[in-house]
Specification:
239 residues; Transcrip_reg_TACO1_YeeN; Arc Repressor Mutant, subunit A; TACO1_YebC-like_2nd/3rd_dom; Alpha-Beta Plaits; 3 domains; cytoplasm; 22% strand; alpha+beta; single chain; transcription; Probable transcriptional regulatory protein BK138_05700; 4-stranded antiparallel β-sheet
Length: 239
Amino acid sequence: MGRKWNNIKEKKASKDANTSRIYARFGREIYVVAKQGEPDPESNRALKVVLERAKTYNVPKAIIDRALEKARGNSDETYDELRYEGFGPNGSMVIVDALTNNVNRTASEVRAAFSKNGGNLGVSGSVAYMFDSTAVIGVEDKTEEEVLELLMEADVDVRDIIQEDDSVIVYADPEQFHAVQEAFQNAGVTEFSVAEVSMIAQNYVELPAESQPAFEKMIDALENLEDVQNVYHNVELED
């Protein structure tokens, strides 16, 4: 279970290395989610989740406000939400989520990122069944026992609670994201080390040393695409 949080940390560290890119992606996602419902997180739960994620990535308030104002305005900009599934070396599996205003461009770029780095694009459903959509919420300065107790008092069901490094990580059904977060907030927690709804692999694989550089290059190529929001995989990368 611990490797799941490690993979999210790796993804977060990679994104933190290019703040302008992650800010642009959050701006786009906030706009899309706000446009689909109400531009108010109190009445739009999906927007509330995105804003909580943005907070853990230190997205500036100005960028968030700009995206919300754009959603409130008369912008007719539209995006398609796309999911691609593919394979890397040695049976590794990859999921790519994108938001795009040009489906053909995105499909071409994602396909090229796979094929040029030893992978191949699969059909819809070929990979996703091996991943679980999971709410992942982490807090610091609490023990597993304290977290378990406060969640029990709040009558919140979760999948697992793991102490790793300086954080206690809670894994739950996506529908429980707000319930878990509210339980923490009612206990005085205001900062989260992670607040994600992620795709978590059911099983992880290790790649031979000679295959790992190509796999990492493929993941980097996918994450560097302008339209790509998130990349998930089932590989245990060496630290």
